[in-house]
Amino acid sequence: MRRVVAILALVAVLAPAALAAIQCVYNPRFGTDQRDRLLERKGQVLNDTIYGKARREVIDASGYIRDHDELVGRRGNDTLDARDEDGADTLKGEGLRHLLRRLRGRGV
After folding, report:
1. What distance in Å separates the CA atoms of residue 31 and residue 58, rounded to the nearest whole number?
2. How many Å apart are CA 80 and CA 73, to the nearest integer?
3. How far apart are CA 5 and CA 18, in angstroms?
4. How much is the pTM?
5. For the residues 62-69, what does the mean pLDDT come to?
6. What is the pLDDT of residue 5?
7. For the residues 3-16, what does the mean pLDDT come to?
8. Residue 3 backbone phi and psi in degrees, to 5
9. Is 105 left (phi over 0), alpha (psi -120 to 50) or beta?
10. How far apart are CA 107 and CA 89, in angstroms?
11. Mean pLDDT value across residues 62-70
């Protein structure tokens, strides 16, 4: 019984740390109040604009090429990932320090 209680307590502590993965369907796409992992729409040549919200989110537009994606980080230490080899993406963050610390990929 103690083991079950300990496992449930551990799950309750670790669950909020997990990122909710959201596959974008509409454009533009906005994050939620939770810590999210926002993924670009499926398919080549689909331009996406994805906005984070208020937490340390991961905005990932590295899956498809021949598109122009705009990733916008908001408050918090968002990770913007546009490593899709087309060099046509725009990454923005709130404040220069935020942008320089978290940005990865080409097309900056």
Report:
1. 10
2. 7
3. 21
4. 0.70
5. 89
6. 53
7. 52
8. -65, -40
9. left
10. 5
11. 89
- Taking the C-alpha atoms of residue 17 and residue 77, their distance in angstroms, rounded to an integer, is 14
Give the mean pLDDT of 81-88.
83
User: 17 by DSSP, 3-state: which?
Assistant: helix
Sort 73 into a burial class: Cβ within 10 Å, 0-12 / 13-18 / 19+.
Answer: buried
Contact between 94 and 55 under an 8 Å Cβ cutoff? The reply is no
The CA-CA-CA angle for residues 60, 82, 47, to 5°, reads: 85
Distance CA 35, CA 11 (A): 17
One-letter amino acid identity for 96?
L
Q: Given CA atoms 88, 93, 95, 98 in this order, what sign does their dihedral have?
A: negative
CA distances to 13, 76, 80, 94 from 98, rounded to whole Å, are 28, 8, 11, 6
Rounded distance between C-alpha atoms, residue 24 and residue 36, angstroms: 12
